[in-house]
């Protein structure tokens, strides 16, 4: 099974997917003991290292021969704020067999993608075309604590990645194993990428915990807005299923009973 874990950039808002990752890891640890080449903390810090907000992040991993490999990373949003589609393209390349290959039950595509967002600022009422037409350069650069022009690029990037991934997976009937977890209604300090007060970070953790209880949703191809799938599952339920699939896959590769 091809498995992809994608995490958006978002400064201190990386705490939101961090909570979701902690939940997923707890489910995996309950099934088996394993280690990753890089700590999830390093991955989250690196993908949130937005220039001018947070410093670049350095960490090292070891190759199979024990040699250290150094990483000096900046915010992934510089290239792709939602890296799901890039990861999918990199792993699959021209080999579409990944999408035609079936899982053991022969009913589902053997691909699973978990995409974690760091939250989006709730859109204000002043973003209709009439008001925006009156904005000057400074309004585009900074307005009500955010930068509309930067937010527009990053939000558009994420929406496009969601939509392209959904279309590709639906084409090959793989969309049942695509899980996107995102909160697009952050307001006030919660929408900041660098406000690291204890109060704000505690609130971001709460956002992540609340997301686990919310229904599974997906972007509507026409409106580009998130809508509930209506299958009765919460994000926590879906992650629990993903953890079982990942655990069973690892055991299968090592010839262990599932």
TrEMBL record:
Species of origin: Dioscorea zingiberensis
Q: What is known of its domains?
A: The nitrogen atoms of the two glycine residues in the GGXR motif define the oxyanion hole, and stabilize the oxyanion that forms during the nucleophilic attack by the catalytic serine during substrate cleavage.
Q: Which residues form the PNPLA domain?
A: 1-88
Q: What is the recorded name of this protein?
A: Patatin
Task: Locate the motif DGA/G.
Answer: 75-77
| Family designation | Belongs to the patatin family.
Q: Which GO terms describe its molecular function?
A: monoacylglycerol lipase activity; phospholipase activity
Q: Which InterPro entries match?
A: Acyl_Trfase/lysoPLipase, PNPLA_dom
Please give the function described in this protein's UniProt entry: Possesses non-specific lipolytic acyl hydrolase (LAH) activity. Hydrolyzes phospholipids as well as galactolipids. May play a role in disease resistance.
